[in-house]
Amino acid sequence: MVRGCFITGTDTEIGKTTIAAAIVSLLGKTGLRVAGLKPVAAGMSAIDGERINEDVHALRAASSVPLGVDEIAPFQFEAACAPHVAAALEGRSIDRDRILATIQAAAARCDRVVVEGVGGFRVPFDAAGDWDSADLARDLGLPVLLVVGLRLGAINHALLTAEAVRARGLRLCGWVANTVDPAMAQASATIDALTVGLGNAPCLGLVPRLPAPSPEAIAPYLNVPALHHLFDSDSTLKESP
Predict the structure, then answer these.
(1) Is 197 annotated as a binding residue?
(2) Are 174 and 230 in contact (CB under 8 A)?
(3) Does 19 show up as a binding residue in the annotation?
(4) 52-82 residue pLDDT tens
(5) pTM (2 decimals)?
(6) Strand intervals (E) in the chain
(7) Which 3 state secondary structure label does DSSP give 35?
(8) Once rounded to an integer, what is the mean pLDDT over residues 24-29?
(9) Contact between 83 and 77 (Cβ < 8 Å)
(10) Active site residues
(11) Is 95 annotated as belonging to a binding site?
């Protein structure tokens, strides 16, 4: 059984990976064997002499279980664009069975896994629209943690995402507000609206805009006891939406 959570976001470039890496790092420090996985990643660069997606690099660095790049991200693409487009540019396709098998194999070596989606909750994985990142979350059946990028439009994006998560029979287990626009007007009122609108999903952190958002820098802004409860409780993973 895959145990852990699926991390999605209200949009792309809102800090999913930095939050995911911080959670992976925090859990690893408790003695759990934890790995961050990002099965589909678009956009690669040279890092430490390796051609790799920077999100995949960050998750691997945060993990307490040493995994190879192909175990963390079986599908990496060069172009920084929609994954199915990036795949088509390379004459490849994103294979559903391979992704699930890779995640299950990694999970067998871990106590918990944190699986990060790509972009927002519904990102296509093929041109026909037959399956997307929401389908991957449903395939895994993991509770979903939502990273809300704090900027204008955050409330609408968060509520729509929560609705889509719950419509697939998945449980929204919590959310983290990550400051994208530090000059955002009425940020506290936005947090209040999110708290009401997201219902019984607890807020697991309020992260300010940080100059260097490393796991260590983010950790003080996360609700560590709540995160530990989320990952330590088997009932949390089995609870109905």
Answers:
(1) no
(2) yes
(3) no
(4) 999 999 999 999 999 999 999 999 999 999 9
(5) 0.94
(6) 4-9, 34-37, 40-42, 45-47, 50-52, 75-77, 112-116, 144-150, 172-179, 203-207
(7) strand
(8) 95
(9) yes
(10) 38
(11) no
